[in-house]
Amino acid sequence: MDKSQDVLEKILSRLDSMDSRFDNMEVNVTEGLDKMGARLDKMDTRFDKMETRFDKMDARFDSLESKVDEIKQELNSVREQVIKNSEGIADLNVKVDEVKEDISSFQENMEFLNDQQVEIKKDVWKLKRRA
Question: What is the torsion angle, in degrees rounded to the nearest 10, for the CA atoms of residue 10, residue 11, residue 17 and residue 20?
C-alpha cells in the first residue's frame, strides 16, 4: 500500500500544483481582462471625445455653409445691382450722346444765327449809308 499511497500522494501533489497553476492563470487572466476592460473603457472615452469633436466640427461646417450661402445671396444681389447700374449707365450714355448732339445742333444754329445777324447788320449799315 505504500506504493499506492505514494502514487496517490504524487497525484494529489500534482493536482494541487495544477490547481495552484490554474488559480495563478485565473488571476492572470482576470487581471488581463481587467486591464483590457480598462483599455476598452479608455478607448470608449476617447471615441466619445472624438465623436464630440466631430459633432462640433460638423456644427462649424454647417455654420460655415450657411455663411457661404448668405455670401452667395449677397453676391447675387450685388451682381443684379451691378447689372442694373450698367444698364442705367448705358441709358445715361445714350442720353449724354443725345444732349451732345442737341448742343452741337444748337451751336450750329447759333453760328448760323450769328452769321445772319452779321449779314443783317451789314444790310442795316448799307441802308444807313444810302439814307
Answer: -140
